[in-house]
Automatic annotation (TrEMBL):
<dbReference type="GO" id="GO:0009423">
    <property type="term" value="P:chorismate biosynthetic process"/>
</dbReference>
<dbReference type="InterPro" id="IPR001874">
    <property type="entry name" value="DHquinase_II"/>
</dbReference>
<feature type="binding site">
    <location>
        <position position="111"/>
    </location>
    <ligand>
        <name>substrate</name>
    </ligand>
</feature>
<dbReference type="GO" id="GO:0019631">
    <property type="term" value="P:quinate catabolic process"/>
</dbReference>
<comment type="similarity">
    <text>Belongs to the type-II 3-dehydroquinase family.</text>
</comment>
<comment type="subunit">
    <text>Homododecamer.</text>
</comment>
<dbReference type="GO" id="GO:0009073">
    <property type="term" value="P:aromatic amino acid family biosynthetic process"/>
</dbReference>
<protein>
    <recommendedName>
        <fullName>3-dehydroquinate dehydratase</fullName>
        <ecNumber>4.2.1.10</ecNumber>
    </recommendedName>
</protein>
<feature type="site" description="Transition state stabilizer">
    <location>
        <position position="17"/>
    </location>
</feature>
<keyword id="KW-0057">Aromatic amino acid biosynthesis</keyword>
<keyword id="KW-0028">Amino-acid biosynthesis</keyword>
<feature type="binding site">
    <location>
        <position position="74"/>
    </location>
    <ligand>
        <name>substrate</name>
    </ligand>
</feature>
<dbReference type="GO" id="GO:0003855">
    <property type="term" value="F:3-dehydroquinate dehydratase activity"/>
</dbReference>
<feature type="active site" description="Proton acceptor">
    <location>
        <position position="22"/>
    </location>
</feature>
<dbReference type="InterPro" id="IPR036441">
    <property type="entry name" value="DHquinase_II_sf"/>
</dbReference>
<feature type="binding site">
    <location>
        <position position="80"/>
    </location>
    <ligand>
        <name>substrate</name>
    </ligand>
</feature>
<dbReference type="GO" id="GO:0008652">
    <property type="term" value="P:amino acid biosynthetic process"/>
</dbReference>
């Protein structure tokens, strides 16, 4: 089983930015935690983060070529703006989990609209960085 964890813009700044919203864990901390879970489940996991929309699209296309079974995706700011990323996800037909550290429904009005929620296997929002763990556990359970 292969799982890609894909992170959008500014998530490389976790642990430094707006700790009151995003907490103090870094992206590396999250990746370490997920790697341990994947290893126990004999699951191959890879990670990719980019601040560039086209690089995220390329990563989604590569996931298709690499026969990835599930994607855990935090599109970050692209959640509310990127039809191109939505189209890439639809094109590859890989089941994906939409993850948000904060509860986007309780934030600013412009953050309440996601271009991904209606096509995601599951949306996990407002659970802090533990949302990634919940998505991984569900992806492993569904693929097993």
């Amino acid at each position: 089983m292969k799982i890609l964890v894909l992170n959008g813009p500014n998530l490389n700044m976790l642990g430094l930015r707006e700790k009151n919203i995003y907490g103090s864990e870094t992206l590396n901390d999250i990746e370490t935690k997920l790697s341990k879970i994947a290893e126990k489940s004999k699951c191959e996991i890879s990670f990719y983060q980019s601040n560039a929309e086209h690089e995220l699209i390329d990563a989604i296309h590569k996931a298709f070529k690499d026969n990835v079974n599930s994607i855990i995706f935090n599109p970050a700011g692209y959640t509310h703006t990127s039809i191109a990323l939505r189209d890439a996800i639809l094109a590859v037909k890989i089941p994906f989990y939409e993850v948000h550290i904060s509860d986007i429904d309780s934030r600013e009005d412009f953050r309440k609209r996601s271009y991904f929620s209606d096509i995601a296997e599951k949306v996990i929002s407002g659970n802090g960085t533990h949302g990634y763990v919940l998505a991984l556990e569900d992806a492993i359970k569904v693929q097993s």
